[in-house]
Design goal:
By secondary structure, the protein is of the alpha/beta class. It is 64% helix and 6% strand. It has 37 helices and twelve strands. The strands form four sheets. A five-stranded parallel β-sheet has the order 4-5-6-3-7, with helices on both faces. Helix 19 runs parallel beside helix 21, helix 26 (567-583) packs parallel to helix 28 (607-623) and helix 29 packs antiparallel against helix 30 (647-661). The chain is globular and about 105 Å long.
Amino acid sequence: MGNEQWARADGNARITQVAGDHITYAAGAGPAPRALLGLPDAPPALVGRDGPVKELVGLLAEGGPPVVVVAGLAGVGKSALAVSTAHRAVELGWFGDRVFFLSLRGYAPDGGVSGPQAVQEMLRHLGVRDTDMPESPEGRVALYRAKLAAFAQAGQRVLIVADDAGAVGQVRDLVPAADAHRLLVTSRHRLVAPGFAGRVLPLDELAEGPAAELLADAVLRAWPDDPRPAREPEALAGIARRCGRLPLALAVAGAVLAGDPGLSAGELAQRLAEARSRLEALTFDEGRVPVGVRAAFDLSYARLPADQARIFRLLTVNPGPDCRTEYAGLLTGEGEEVRPKLAALVRASLLTEQPVGSGRWRMHDLLRLYALERGEECAEEDGREEATDAFLADLVLSTGVAQDLLGVNRPGIRAPGLPSVAQVLDRLDMERPTLVAAVGFAADSGRVDTAVKLAGLLSPYFQLYGHTQENLLMARHVLAAVRTTGRPDGLAVAVCDLGSALCQADDGEATERLTEALALFREASDREGEGRALTLLGTSYAAARRLEEARQAHQRALEIYREVGFLHAEAAVLLALGSDLQHLGRLDEAIAMHRQSLALMRELGDRHREVIVLDALGEALWAAGRGEECLVVWEEALVIVRDLGYRTRMAWILNRIGLSLLSTRSPHEVRARFEEALSLFTAGGDRDGEGVVMINLGVLHQREGRWTQALEAHERACALLDTVEDQAAAVRALAGTLGGLGRFAEAAEGYERAAAGFAAVGDAEREAKCRQEAAGMREAARRPRRWWHRFTR
């Protein structure tokens, strides 16, 4: 409760309290006071808000709506935007000195300024003494509107900034009748109500660059010579990210740094890295009342009805970055009736639907931490543990159904009305962050069996569709959880799963983990497990170019699988053996192995792995110089992969088809294949794929004599590719283009760089070729230029 306040008036003066401030007006003591141009000072820096300022200025101009509501999360900078824009409107001469500011304190515990109080305060601003005030609220509203009408008749526009409104009732009677005037409202709520026609301007958190800039500005305003912003830009960017790019949080973090000049930005970033203590760290003690994000969120949370507050808390059971409407209904027990309450949380700026109409709901990162705190406080009354179990059980069930529909490891279920494979993949891709987070959450919360089961369902999808890092993260979570149980039966599988994920990620740790798994399976006399560990261990050897060891491990695995009659695993290890033999130069044997694998995959109805085998078979045929056969195989794979909707593999196959056609078909046909592959890689954010296709497109441009386009393509490839081997291939292609343009010295340097790259990865053949090409370019540079032109014509 606030401090008790006393005031005394002399003579006939009357004292009126508005929002905690005592204002004394003396009756009959000269002209009535007016608060013209009563704006607070504009904030010293309004960073990253050029777009919203431009939009808001446009709304305040003539022809705009009479009411604009700037709405957003607590601390997002609504008041700063409104006040700055109001000052801008004054500078433009739109409102003269007829600009008024009301602080409505709509989220204060006492309820702030009421609607009638707001009208009364505006009448005082407009020059009406308390002694001249109409007695009834209706009379005061009528007088207020008459005053505004008089300004309009005189051709004078009025701007009223009503800051921090908590409800439509606080501002409804302030709405100007004349179109010329403007009421600019800020609120944490998107103020929408029957009979209240306000244009809502939602305000989001800052972008990354402006957020770091605002943080640096807060430090430099206190200490202009502070070296930390220039010395630690990455740490400042990390602080900004952990502040969720929320201006209030950034201001607090800036005050913490400014208040402790010896605190490095890196230390503060580390302090904020711990999610559980982040809200506490984003609190600044001014000596009276601590200022911070949690206190600001408290005011919004306190306004929620009980049912909305419960939903707000329970949404954090979902560990993913967003929550589908169906999951929200499941968590809260509201079912299909939950959407109106989710929409109410959106209006309160405590939730967003992204994109609008998608049924996917997201909280700001800091707000999520706050909701989690409140949820743990109310866990028993909310039924939080039961909601968690129901949510995880639903994920396991729905993921199992998705695997059945996909047909991973067995023929997929097909029937009228069921989603297609492409639709199932799209759904899994959309839910992937939530599914990965759910595995970690289940493991960390002691639900180890659930974590193992969900991970087991997800792993084939992750492996087949290239989600390497997610698979690795999931496998590490599961192994750590399984180790805590002390159960040896699950340990071998978990270690092998991690080894598989490491192998797919080309991580050198894979061999160690798979060797450990092999020993555990042998100790348990688990023949299938032993075969799996040998298969993966062979693949790990192959990645390390230990090709004969790889072949031997795969051969032993094949013998085990044939012994136990595990056809699916037999087909997979035949594919691996074919790859070993191809790299050993035994192409006919490799092709035979791939054909055996293909026959088994078709017998088993596994179309996902059938595509992988077809792709590998095509590569072996290409290496054997059987171009027409390989083209037929890749076209067959393309048909299947289009049906499956596997865009990444489709892009790689299209790229390979383009290469196979490069010497035999029209440039138009080749370009169509490359460009389709490029569009798929770009849409999927696959920089490696983009880079490889750009190399090939550049080669096509070379063949058609378009050297400038070839240069652009190969320069882009160099910018996209980052592994040593891929970068070497891109630089080699660029060197060839530079040579074609007559820039021989640069070309020679490029070939030498490419040779060094190939040497680093042990590719002696391509290294030697690049050295030879570099020598050719140096020789060309020494000859007269006219010789080169005759040579190239």
